[in-house]
Amino acid sequence: ALNTKIENGQARLQVLQQEADAQQERWQTADAKAVALGEQDTQLQQQLQQLQIWQAQHSALQDLANEWGRWESDIQDYLEQQQALQQQQAKYEQLQNSMGTQQAELNNLQKGAAVCLAQEQQLNVDLQALEQQADAQALADLYQQQATLESRQAISHSAVTLAEQGLALQQELASTQAAITASEQALQQAHTQIEQLNSQQAYQQGQLQEAQQAFNRMQAAGQKTARDLRALLLPEEPCPVCGAQEHPWANKHLEALEASVTAQQARVEQLMSEKEQLLSALSAQQSIVKQAQQEQERLVQAVRRMEASLQVLAEQWLSFAFDDKPAWAALQSVDITRLQTQKAQLNVQYQAIKNQVAEALSLQTQMDALRRQRDTARQQAAQQDANIAALDKKIAQQVSTLAAYDERITELNASLLKLETGLRVPLQAVDNWQTELSSAGDEFLQQLRDSVAKWHKNNQQQNQLKQELVQIKQDLAVATTAAEQQQQHHQQLQQTLQQHKRQQQDLFTERQQYCQGRSASAYAQELELQLQTAAQQKQQADADKVAANHALSTWQSTQQHWQAEQQRRLEKQDAAEQALQAELAQLQLTQERAQDLLQKDAQWISAQEQKNAALTQALQEAQADLKIGDTHLQAHQQQAPAVEEEQVIAELAQLHREQKALNAARENKVFLQRVDDEKIAAAQHLQAELKQQLHLYEQWESLNELIGSKTGHKFRIFAQSLTLDTLLSYTNRHLQEFAKRYILQRVPDSELELQVIDRDMADDVRSIHSLSGGESFLVALALALGLASLSSNQTQVESLFIDEGFGSLDQETLDIALASLDTLQSLGRKVGVISHVPALVERIGAQVVVAKLGGGQSVVTIKA
Length: 864
Description:
It is built from 17 helices and seven strands. It has helices at about 1-55, 60-65, 70-135, 140-220, 225-230, 255-320, 335-425, 435-440, 440-515, 520-585, 590-600, 600-640, 645-705, 715-740, 775-790, 810-825, 840-845; strands at about 740-745, 755-760, 765, 800-805, 830-835, 845-855, 855-864. The strands form three sheets. The chain has a three-stranded antiparallel β-sheet. It has a two-stranded parallel sheet with strand order 4-5. Helix 3 (about 70-135) runs antiparallel to helix 7, helix 3 (about 70-135) crosses helix 9 and helix 14 (about 715-740) crosses helix 15. The longest helix is centred in the middle third of the chain and has 91 residues, at about 335-425.
């Protein structure tokens, strides 16, 4: 309880101490504020005194500052009028200088116009001389002569080429025919030799057969079976084999028989060798005959081709039309030389005409250049005339402007004198105000504004300082009272704080007395219990530490084990992947294909196994068929029928004859095909020429359709339609200036009729008869302007007269039409209007007025 009281007392003592410190700070703050207010009052007194001194020194500004709004406006007007006067004088001097420059430019333009006129006259003289020279060489006649010579030159070139080709073909044809004759003779000789060889072969074949039969008999007589049979023969008894009663071989010796057999065998072999030589010679002669026949057929086809080519060239030769053309059958090298001479002469004549055409074209080019120069000089002269007129008009306007500037300068001088008289009263306190106002101007006005503003600001500051001094005196009295109150409150808090300190000291004394009555054993027991509890807690912490270290070592060993196991598994996986790649390479499979196969289901695997089984069975069947075929082949080879050599030779000869006939038929077909190809090429060439002629016919037919009438009506309409199209293009340009609503165009499938497109009505097509009176006038005006633009391409149209029609226009359309005419006038054209509309009388300055006098007489007056 004592401790609680002591703690509460300390807390209360601390709170009281804080309140005492805060109250002391408030007291010090209030005292400092009172001191600061006193110092501020002294400073404001000094500032008020300084402002009163400055106002006494500038008392001359009082009248100007009191009515500053009025005098500032007058001063501003004075400066503005003075600046306007300077500007007017500068413009006056600049305009005078400009007039001098323009007058000099006008003189130069007049001189340039005279030079352009002289150049135009000289160019006209030169152009007339060139035109007379060009008339002597009519370009159309030269073109006609050139075309004629080109045609003759082409015919001559084609004739020379054709004659050379024909002569070469005739020579080649003669040599080919001679070769055919020689080939026929050689072929006849070869056939004679073949017949001789065939007869020799027949004779040799008979001898060979007799020798072979004798040799066979001798061999049969020398065999063991024949000797046994001879031993059984009895004189004058028939032979059991042949039935003969005579037995010439019964008593012959075997040695003589063997010698005869050897001699007969040698004779058979010699006859066989001679037969082979005859067969070789026969085969060689047949090859020669075949080659000769092929060469003869080739030459015959060449002759046919050359004859066909000569026939084509003869037909082409008949199509040429020129003088002294020799007959195709009697064409000689002399004729070709003469044709080449004619061709060279035509080339010379063509070159001469070509040079004349070049000279005529050069003259035409010079004439065109001179015409362009003349037109340029004429345009320059017209432009200079327009510039002279514009400068005259501009100089007249500048003279009028100078008069206006002079009048304005006089007015400004009078107004400045009046303002200066009014400003003398308010500015009399300012030294040299007239000089400063004239020289400095805006700077002097700004100085006056600053001085007046400072005067007003000084008055405002004095009033404000006076109000602040009154407020500071009041605040100073309040602050002094508050400081005294804070001081009293602080003294009271100090007394209360001393009282609580004494109470706290009494509580400390009482607790000390109470603690002195207790023993130290109680404190020792409490400390022993606390030590035992701490020792138990330490043992438990050591046990926990040992368990944690054991668990940590266990986890570390487990981690090492699994790291080694992971490394081993990675190595095993790498080895498996390498083995898999090797197996896939051996099976020629990619990894993606293997993955696709592994993803197949059991049904697909079963189907593949069935396919493999079927393929295996098919392979076994094919192998069995192959074995059977080999067996049949061997049996066929063993049982091959024996064919006689004569039959084979006969069949071979028959096959040669059939092959020869087929080759002849094939070559005949090839020749016919080549002839057909040439005919097809000729037909294609004729088809191309026919197409070209048809195209030319269509062009002439189109021209005939357009302009081919004997009266010239079609051509006239055609030419007028072209001119009308050009006129409509110019007309629509002018319509865009004062009647954008309409576009003129020709009526489709008509000759010269017109129609109107109304753009405001969704491009509706209207008849020109549906236009109102004012619209018809605008369209007619656009057509007239378009006709003038069309005519100006060849002839310069400088004037345009419009007769009536303005009375049908409303005011807006009339303004548009007059604005367009003003534009034409500004471009250098003279526009004359014949009308009685009052609006035109007011708008047009230069007028030619015709007044009736009666009796068929009138008077003409000109109003400028």
